[in-house]
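Researcher: Before we compare anything, I want clean individual predictions. No alignment, no superposition, just each chain on its own. First chain goes here; please echo the sequence and then give the structure tokens.
Model: Echoing the first chain and its structure:
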Amino acid sequence: MERNGQLELYGSLAARLKHAHTRVAGLQVTDEVRIQLSRKLLVVTAAAKHDVAGASRRLDALMRDLDEGRFPDEGSP
């Protein structure tokens, strides 16, 4: 049973990540900002391999920032 629940979490996170990538690709921002946001999404993807719940929280925070118009500064790591 736990295995099915874990698969559902992975599936849900994967769908949300796909949506997030599409959203980032459509933003009217500089290429530098888009690259930084894409890197953040890659970090979330990598984190999902070890901690699905933590990756989900990271994605929630990133999407909240996007919703509120908070983008990384150009030139910041």
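Researcher: Okay. Second chain, same rules.
Model: Second chain and its structure:
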Amino acid sequence: MGKMLNETDPSRPRVIMSRVVRRKEHDDRSFDIEFWQKVGDIGRFAAAWQMIREVQLIRGQSGELPRMQKGVTRIIRRSRELR
């Protein structure tokens, strides 16, 4: 997962989009929505991991991606007879 966003799947074409916005123009976010829809699930996941790595580097950490937390929880349902 240490690859850049456009290097995650070489078979997928790289998504490049641009727009010009005037300073006082209202942004309805349609451009952003269209971009992330074109990137797809894999691209969004890769972008999220890339941002996590960048935050770690900014904080002076190693920049290695964190491991998944392995917390364990046990949920016990009350029996319906006790109510």
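Researcher: What stands out in the second chain?
Model: The helical segments are 30-58. Additionally, The mean pLDDT is 77.
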